[in-house]
Predict the structure.
Amino acid sequence: MKRLAGILLAAVLASSCGGGDDDDGTTVDSGAIADAAATVDAARTPDSSTTSAGSATWQLQPNAQCSATITLCSDGGAVGGYQLIGMGACPLSSTSTFYFHGGGGPPAAGSYPVRAATSIVGAANVPAGEVVVRIIHHPSSTVEENWFAQSGNVTVSLVGGKLVATLPLVSAKKDTTALTQMMMATTTCP
């Protein structure tokens, strides 16, 4: 499962960063990011918290709430960050991901302000104490939409020894347009 999370991160970074930017004035070399993601995946060590089932729910309004069929929690290092991922079909493929600062293990319990990203590039190198939240939505089999939370705080807690991240209903922005909707998400690590 951890290898799958690394492969997903590398694929997302490689396919989504084609020289684009996240409105901060910097341009990103997609090859360098893909290489860094592959390096992070190769260096990843197993996490003992993946031995039992996790759960995740998310919603990009006005669409129906999604429930995960696969839940992953993994540290992708400084570039990939610590990720809490829920994947499912509702009715088509959909994913929610919390990106925390990586390289130091899971985030501690507490409140984390949302970093308002506008592309996947904004999820790389998340500063300590912040979080990027992304929902990938497929309104059709040929269209993929990437939505990023723009405000609010994510609450991280330990419930029954499991890490839980919760984003209340907040404003989200579609990465390629100025469209906004509301989104929320909760993931419990396995």
Notes: The longest helix spans residues 2-16. The chain has three helices and eleven strands. The first strand starts at residue 55 and ends at 60.
